[in-house]
Amino acid sequence: MPLIRPFRGLRPAVESAQRIIAPPYDVLTTKEARAVAADAPDNFLHVSKPEIDLPEDVSAYDPMVYAKGAENFQRLIHDGLLRQDALPCFYLYRLQRAAHVQTGIVVTVAVADYEANRIRKHELTRPDKEDDRVHHMEALNAQTGPVLLVYPDDRHAQHLIAKHSEAAPVYDALALDDVKHTLWVVDDAEVMAAASRTFAEMPAFYIADGHHRSAAAARVAARRDHQDEAANHFLAVLFPVSEIQILDYNRLIKDLNGLLPKVFVDQVARRFSVSEQDRPVRPAATGEFGMYVAGRWYHLRAADEWLQEDDPFMRLDISILSDYLIKPLLGIEDVRRDPRIESVGGVRGLGELQRRVDSGEMAVAFSIHPTPLSALIAVADAGEIMPPKSTWFEPKLADGLVSHVLGT
Q: Partners of 299 in the beta sheet?
């Protein structure tokens, strides 16, 4: 069975792309989104985070929010700023920030393959976040945020993508975060058939980012009794593993569980190899951690036997940090929900960790080596679930570049 399907993408008019594309809905806070879109009435944040157009005391989950998003979406369509392709297509999509470049293909994938674990997950989802995406899709009758999928490197797929991204693109838009978003339309029937055959030979895809959108799409398909063929598929972008960039996803803890800093460091040293450093510690390999507490940086090294666990989940860096330090020494058993722990994407830098500890807001920070994609795939293949906030992918996909319209 084919793993990918072309679709009639809804995308900006060429002259409108620059002012429409927006960061993913879950990257910005509502306050940040209000600031970005304040003087940009056509920015897609008015569709993906429509609470910015309502009073501040309105909940982001209020039915008025979804109605406002649908209204804004229809206005962009009515004004000709968003237009739907007449025939099903694939779309090649390149993101570039500085020297990093990744090129993938925008497709739809089947809910049935997601439910059959041919599209593999590695995260738990929260019901409230799922509900939010279900309400958003139903209100718009569209999927506007693509799921980020990865596939093991395949020379045929990568050759096909490289060959057909040599022509002049349809869009070449620079986002506010200095990421260049480039899109090509692939509407040649033979090329699309070749792409479908190539990807159909792959045993599985892996969700890198977009677990809530995937789960919500499956729920929308079920709510429509699987009678809406468009809703039986969801919007995705596929990239090869070798081109994906994962940054560190670090941890901040509000207190030392009643321990004095020196006592805490001494207890850590009974479990890890610890050495004080005169500069911020960015771990160079798995099994290494940075720790900042009481104005000092330390380098931590895990025991070799922890890194040689048979279970791929147990040998993850974040699992080691949680199981041998955060839980036993800091008393945080539920790392998913405990309000004493916070995760910070590596895009903010180590300086952000140090700043928040120095301010007294937090007591200790841990810098973590980025989770390798091979580890994520091993966990997904084993049918296990990654710890929360394990991966931070950069650069981020753009919302509003290509949307998938559902049926009626």
A: 275, 290
The string of DSSP codes covering 224-269 is: TTT--TGGGEEEEEEEEGGG--EE-EEEEES--TT--HHHHHHHHH
Closest CA relative to residue 402, chosen from 109, 84, 47:
84
- The whole-angstrom distance between residue 157's C-alpha and the CA centroid of its chain comes to 22
Helix axes 189-200, 155-163, angle to 10 degrees: 160
**pTM for the structure as a whole:** 0.88
* C-beta separation of 213 from 145 below 8 A: yes
**What does the domain layout of the chain look like in residue ranges?**
9-245+395-405, 249-369
Residue 60 neighbours by CB distance under 10 Å:
14
**Other residues' Cβ atoms within 10 Å of the Cβ of residue 115:** 13
Cα(14)–Cα(73) distance, rounded to whole angstroms? 17
The 10s digit of each residue's pLDDT in 27-58 is: 888 999 999 999 999 999 999 999 999 999 99
How, if at all, do strands 82-84 and 90-97 pair?
unpaired
- How far is 222 from 210, CA to CA, in rounded Å? 19
Q: Which two tokens stand for residue 238?
A: 């596929």
What tens digit of pLDDT does each residue of 306-324 get?
988 888 889 999 999 999 9
Calpha distance 400→408 (Å, rounded): 21
Estimate to the nearest angstrom the gap between the alpha carbon of 96 and the chain centroid. Answer: 16
Asked if residue 220 lies in contact with residue 114, where contact means CB atoms within 8 angstroms, the answer is no
Burial of 342 (0-12, 13-18, 19+ CB in 10 A): middle
According to CATH, the topology of domain 249-369 is: 3.30.1760
Residue 122 tokens, joined: 């590695």
| Cα–Cα distance, 339 to 182 (Å, whole number) | 40
Rg of the chain over CA atoms, in angstroms?
22
Name the CA dihedral angle for 40, 31, 337, 148, rounded to a multiple of 10 degrees: 10
Other C-beta atoms closer than 10 Å to the C-beta of 94 total 19
Residue 334: how many CB atoms within 10 A of its CB?
9
Q: How far apart are the first and last CA of the chain?
A: 26
